[in-house]
Amino acid sequence: MLLVKKIAGELLSPLSLILVLLAVALVLLWFTRRQRLGKLVATAGFVLFVVLAYGWLGGPALRALERAYVPMVAPPPSIHWIVILGGSAWSDPDLPPLWRATEPTLARAVEGVRLYRRLPGAKLVVTGGTAFEAETMAALAAELGVPREAIVTDAASPDTESQARMVRDLLKGEPCILVTSAVHMRRSLAFFRKAGVLALPAPADYLSHSHRTLSPSDFFPSPGRIRGADAAVHEYLGLAWGWLTGRI
């Protein structure tokens, strides 16, 4: 089921939809007489690319997710657990664990360690769907100064829902600070609260940014805006699936 969800999510991503539209258009234009339909499909793919690359649709949708919770400046002193949800990590065996981290993983780890330093005696829980993800998170935390004995590593939980249950069993009713990407926070909190975990949000890794003045980059398509749109679509699909199946 997990593999099916991941494949479906990739197929429904904005870039995949654009590629499908352009592929269909090429087939219609080159191999059929339905030239008008082919032109319409190609136009739809181009328009979708422009809308996403300039952030006209993905930008507001992304900001609605990321700005739902404010960053945690100072953690409550009564908290003894900080949970960092694992992002992705490269599985390249030629790289040491520290250098396998992707940008979301690095941003989450830095925020988790920052909060840890303000809570002497706290425990840091790092999660990851595979061994190399969990290993990467633990290596990052240790390199940033967290003692190994203060790090709890979970490499067995494949997704956010199972990670929430793992944290519930580990904390046994104690509250925690939840660190994940800002775009992922809403869905993550829904899973944690469904599992009965009192989690305080500490969002990190923001993809949407506001500019007070125009810059030359505003007039050109941006891969960053496409990445943000892709992340927003992924989260909204996840929220919809969780709501329809009663998981959140």
Write the layout of secondary structure elements.
Elements: H1 2-11, H2 14-31, H3 35-53, H4 58-66, E1 81-84, H5 103-117, E2 123-127, H6 131-143, E3 151-154, H7 160-171, E4 176-181, H8 182-194, E5 199-204, H9 223-244
Parallel strand pairs: 1-2, 1-4, 2-3, 4-5
Helix pairs in contact: 2-3, 4-8, 4-9, 7-8
What does this protein look like?
This protein is of the alpha/beta class. The chain has two domains: 2-65 and 221-244, no CATH class; 71-204, HUPs (Rossmann fold). Helix content is 53%, strand content 10%. It has nine helices and five strands. It has a five-stranded parallel beta sheet with strand order 3-2-1-4-5, sandwiched between helices. Helix 4 crosses helix 8. The longest helix has 22 residues, at 223-244. The mean pLDDT is 90.
- The 3D shape can be described as elongated
Instruction: Give the rounded overall mean pLDDT.
Output: 90
Strand content: 5-15%
Calculate the terminal CA-CA distance, rounded to whole Å: 17 Å
Distinctive features:
248 residues; alpha/beta; Rossmann fold; 5-stranded parallel β-sheet
Task: Give a brief description.
With 248 residues, the protein is an alpha/beta fold. The chain is built from nine helices and five strands, in the order ααααβαβαβαβαβα.
